[in-house]
Design a protein that fits this description.
The structure is a homodimer.
Chain A lengths: L8 E4 L1 H14 L4 H16 L10 H9 L10 E5 L3 E5 L5 H19 L1 E9 L5 H6 L6 E7 L20 E5 L7 E5 L6 H10 L8 E2 L9 H8 L5 E2 L10 H17 L19 E9 L6 H16 L15 H13 L1 E4 H14 L10
Parallel strand pairs in A: 3-4
Antiparallel strand pairs in A: 1-11, 2-3, 4-10, 5-6, 5-10, 6-7, 8-9
Helix pairs in contact in A: 1-2, 2-4, 6-7
Chain lengths: ~375, ~375
């Protein structure tokens, strides 16, 4: 739901944006197949309105490739495979292609096994977690994806960022309704939304971020500067101890345990700890084969009932709609597929400079 | 962390309390083995300080047994079993014995399969979710347990209770540290904590409960009365839309999907919908065999590191400790195992009346 501010945006077709990303990455010696995967994952985020995880990440990825922090010309490998699980060593390659390999293996194992999980170590930032969970939908499965990340979130009663915003994504098929797609940071807000607030000139409400004294931070610009030095932190979901922020903290820790501790990746404050070393991010993927439990059509009918009853329940005064997780993003995707993806002009200029710097003649083609 | 108010409590030994519960249940024609399981689950909750899920539930269970809403002299059955999954039909028997059967099967399947899950339908209230997750710990596995429940929680932008407080429990072994045991309602507070607030004469802070107009409810007594008529609701974790309550709502829905929709049980507002019909609660259990992923000792050492680093991180002013999920409950368990379980005198009298009513001569033996 991060939308660029309305003033200085242009619109770009998804196809043109994928081609631009692919061109940048192949110029940086990424294989065409890996580049195409990264392009699809980033553009999928932009299409769904999750602009913090879209093409805005390309500059960072390109920088890490150029500095050798992300390895090119190699692939992730499936290191161990059992009946219901597999372990992937991403070998410090690009996050998205390694994650796709892991999720594809997970879906394959779940088909015969009922459910399966795959861990990934030596990984990198893989983009929007929901992308991988949603890969289960066309196969009539339930998909889950989690990842740990650089430290930004303080534990309850603490002020030091010790855990990532560690997202949980789950996708469940439905029938006539949109699928259920929960894709949530376990902090009150993900880091990207503090950047959006800064761009829009908005303040952070109490409950989002704290300083080293535990006092609320309202200026997103101040927060973004300080967080690099670990002197400020995001708060876990729940925000305050009396509103059960220890649950958000517990969920962030759970994601770190499954993604990092169990996989053999870095965990806690050690993820991406040394700027000149590989990040060694860890991921966790899971798939459940619906047909192992009940007929797929029955699951879809039951999901439709749950969704309809929730949407038809009584609204709070002033509210017109109750949303299902993922619904706003599906509606955004339909609009943006038709009308193009709105991008901030500053971002477009930054990306164009990147193309010029690395010497590829590609241009971001603007619709209007 | 629900503690009876300090004024009118007595202390009871865990062994005596288990014997009392078993005696009540066997008098109601529950088999000794099922009665012993229910007694152990309830007393485990009291020992851990989760008094809302302890012996306080016995009156409700006994009432449901007497009215034929819970079936006795039958057992749950494993209806379907695959390599990594099983489906249990609890046949409307007592919640805890059916849940134990499901979790035991789950652990057995995960041992050879890497991970496994088991769904339960036609279930009943199973007590403290963490009990089942923690069954994985002595086997060096990760355990998970979820259940849906009677509707109490409103979706974001809604005011009508449509989902249960739907808990998520996860247990992960550690080495020298206490295991990680997250056991959380997906609402800001579970219902039991509103009852505790009432008993203590405390008000509910804004962000816990709302009335039919979406306005905060502060008086727990008013809330407890109204919630039976579905005219008030608990708020999902996050409390307010601007602090991301849609995430708590999404998690509550996720638990309902895995526990209810996928299992074939009731779901959403239909759980325990008709007071004269079986509740048809649904559960979800999962186990991960640590040794499939890395040596157990390595997992435990890594858990200890994560836990120690979190606990040693900088505290907010005025805070002395950072807690790991489950830590307070482990400390309470040690104290109560030694000193006995403090029970409110009103509760003890209520339980004694129950024993008298059903004609069993058992007495709750008080330590002092």
């Amino acid at each position: 739901m991060d939308k660029p501010n309305g003033n200085h945006t242009v619109r770009v077709s998804p196809t043109a944006l994928r081609e631009f990303i692919t061109s940048i990455l192949t110029t940086l010696e990424v294989s065409p197949s890996q580049a195409a995967i990264v392009a699809d994952v980033l553009v999928a985020a932009n299409l769904r309105g999750v602009d913090s995880h879209g093409v805005a990440l390309l500059n960072w990825y390109a920088n890490s490739l150029s500095r050798g922090l992300i390895v090119k010309n190699e692939s992730a490998v499936i290191e161990t495979e059992g009946p219901g699980f597999a372990i992937v060593d991403a070998r410090n390659t690009l996050g998205a292609p390694a994650a796709i390999m892991a999720m594809d293996k997970c879906l394959e194992l779940a088909r015969t096994n009922g459910l399966a999980c795959v861990t990934v170590r030596n990984g990198n930032h893989f983009g929007m977690a929901g992308y991988y969970a949603m890969k289960a939908l066309p196969q009539d499965m339930v998909g889950m994806a989690m990842t740990n990340a650089s430290r930004l979130v303080a534990p309850t009663f603490g002020v030091e960022p010790m855990l990532g915003t560690n997202p949980i994504a789950v996708a469940v098929p439905a029938g006539s309704e949109y699928p259920f797609v929960l894709d949530m940071a376990t902090s009150t807000r993900p880091f990207g939304k503090t950047v959006v607030a800064k761009d829009r000139g908005e303040l952070l409400p109490e409950g989002v971020a704290i300083d080293a004294e535990g006092q609320p931070v309202h200026d997103p610009g101040v927060f973004i500067e300080a967080v690099r030095k670990h002197t400020m932190a995001l708060l876990p979901l729940g925000s305050f101890a009396e509103l059960a922020s220890y649950k958000g903290y517990g969920l962030a820790m759970l994601v770190d345990i499954l993604s990092g501790v169990l996989s053999g990746a870095n965990f806690g404050k050690h993820v991406n700890e040394h700027p000149e070393e590989p990040a060694n991010v860890g991921h966790w993927f899971m798939a459940i084969n619906v047909a192992s439990f009940l007929p797929v059509n029955e699951l879809k009918t039951r999901m439709d009932t749950l969704i309809k009853e929730l949407k038809e329940s009584r609204k709070a005064p002033g509210q017109q709609r109750i949303y299902i997780p993922g619904e706003i993003e599906f509606e955004t995707e339909i609009k943006r597929t038709k009308n193009g993806i709105p991008l901030d002009l500053n971002l477009v200029n930054l990306l164009q400079s990147l193309a010029d710097d690395i010497g590829t003649p590609v241009k971001i083609e603007v619709i209007e």
